[in-house]
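Quick one:
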Amino acid sequence: MKSRVENLFNILCRGAEQISVEKFAEQHNVSSRTVYKDLSTLNQLLTSQGHASIQNARGVLTYEAPVEIEFSELVKKEDIFYIDPEMRRRVILNLVILWAREISISELQHAVGVSKNTIQRDLDEIKKNFTRSETCLDTTPFKGVSITGNEFKIRSLFAENLTKDWPYLYTFINEQESRQINQIKSLIDEISNCLQVEYSENAQQKLIAYMLVSVARFKENKQLCLPRNIDKEDLLGSPEYGAVNKCIEQLKGLYGQEITENELYFLSAKFRESTVVGMSDYISENWIKLRILVSEFIDKMDQLVTESNFSNDDKLFESILNHLRPAYWRAVSGEAIYNPLLDYVINEFEDLYRATTESISVLEKGLSISFSEDEIAFLTMFFMASQERTKKPIELRPKVIVVCHAGVATSEIVSSRLESKYEVSVLGTFGSNEAQKWLESHSVDFVVSTFPFTSKNVKVVEVSPQFDLRDQRKIENVLRVSERIISPDEIMSIISQTIVLSKSDEEILKRKLEEYLGFLPKQDKEERYFPMLEEVLTEDLVETHYCAKDSDDAVREAGRLLVKKGVAKEEYIEAMIENVRINGTYIVIAPGIAMPHARPEEGALGIGFSLITLEQPVNFGHPKNDPVQLVVALCAIDHQTHLNALADLAELLSDEENVQKILKADKAAEVIAITSRR
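Output:
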């Protein structure tokens, strides 16, 4: 939580808004006298760096012109620790955790620059928060301060505190810790490349915090025991464990010695819980179940929110699906996530938040977990973004991208508001690293970022996640609206005069034009058809007792059936095989069952399922579910229209008796007879 002084700075000096002393006092539950003290402190900070003072006209505070600097740039180490006692206490506690030994009062004095009495009072306040906790802050006369108790809880506490105070990190860490952070950043980059994902800025910060404290306390022989809710067996087969294990030599260098299995499991779990802003065709545990639950969740929202059409927003579906995996693992492990926009979402979008809170039961019951208020607010933000996207028809507009450090939900809010309020087309939302790479091969008119971001070739406009009036003025200053309107239909008309395209190629080209130009395809619910399994798994899509040489051969044969049926192109087969190479572990969705697939744009022509049983099982690389004897290939044209069929299939394959009957069947007709019985 930000200090009152920082909040006052953001309202007056950054936001260029006016506020009364009385109102600010009421918002922060303090007296007017306290606000005037905060005002005096802030004016001293401003004038010390050559900025104008805040004006006070009969209790109404104003600032002459907005400043472009962040609060963290305004204050010095001694200033911030003086004006924000809550932060100072977090820093004291984190130093005790990080140094992992008894620390003297004088060491803490030197670190935060306050008196011995202040340190002592801070320690007393910190101790109060440890009541009924699994950790304890110990103070021993003539020795110092240390923390004892549950090692897992201690590390989680460190990470939570550090991410709150990230802008001030380098004010209290030493040179050695600074070098370690650089090593950790390189490791995170390597692991994310291996996983083909990009973590949000906030997630990266938390990963750095966990690895930093893990190294420090491991070196001091602080042994880690994993909580019961972290399943080692599940982790062992996860892509995160595989990626972390690939970097074992670099980890040994960081830790200075061999590291234990528990430490590997700990790090793998933290990567699995981290929010992702960019990913390839990533497959997760129970992905069939997740897709179905997300669809039911969105349908429930459609019932509760009037004049909504969430069910036809493919971007909404995919965004929630991508968010759900780390959210699920955070809930399982008890990992807290902080949503800085929680109060904003609850207050400004009360009805939507209430609907999300009611609808979330679909996910909670289906996954046997409970979501926190912060997590529910993130999910609400996806629906906020969806509503913004449908407010206004999208024309050909100046092209922008959004760069965000807080995660997908926040970036989508910003991008949707941009498209709703201004004549712009948002081509994508990215984390910082992903954005830099994307800009190397793409051009935009400008970049909108929620944190300091630089680009050599394009203008960057920095805005807040709330996208307030000050941010809107920034956009208006750089925006140059083109009045020319071009539609995909016009372009297709021109193309058809010179080139003859098949119906399927025409549809694919039109979809790509719509994406490139910033158009959203308008689909009414009644126009979309969601076929059942018996409609997309027919006798000519079944083969029994196929003698596969290996997993590639099995996938290729299943793909051949899809191509022969006309629901996929030849290139779809190779795309499936490549997907298996990348995500082979989770292609194997259950013991003995694999479900290869590829992206719709990689050669899908329609919706279809092919099913083959193998004469001899083959290995796909899953630690628990190998070998595979049943392969079901999926071909879909979007993220939703196949979900009814997928739900039928999931129900069918959840019954082991059905699986055994399918494996024993000698003819395709026998398999169809089994799959049709529901």
